[in-house]
Amino acid sequence: MTTENSLHLRDITDENRDAVLALKVKPTQNQFVASVAQSLRDAENHPEAKPWYRAIYDGDEPVGFVMMSWKVPPGQPGIFGPYFLWRLLVDERHQRRGVGRAGLSLVIDLAKKDGATELLTSYQPGDGEPWPFYQGFGFEPTGELDGTEILLRLDLTKGSGQ
Q1: CA distance 110 to 91
Q2: What is the pTM of this model?
Q3: Count of H helices and E strands in the chain?
Q4: Does domain 4-155 have CATH number 3.40.630.30?
């Protein structure tokens, strides 16, 4: 079992890019999260979303990827924020070891330190959906949709997150 203490976030550089791009979820999860390559293309194509992304490492091994909209100014059409968890991907070989929980906890801590009072995300409903994972952190549905995805909110002022 991975411990939160052994996990950390790293920038994606020329030296680790190929290893991070090789991370992938189980085939049955592809409907719920885009690949790292697609995420990086989305970040490049949508600079107005203020993309911020990092690889999740366990020691010297990349085990996951996280991407957020970070400090998005108000009034950006179609962009939720100011803090929106855009992608959270845990490589299929490292799932069920606490990587997702620890990675999300790291991001929540960073957002809180940056002054965030809430974290938004969304998920695509379906068999095997990530709703139970987010619910365990204290995320609640906002009642809004982002296309077909259900928008969730985590109140960061209540000591939320695990």
Answers
A1: 22
A2: 0.89
A3: 4, 7
A4: yes
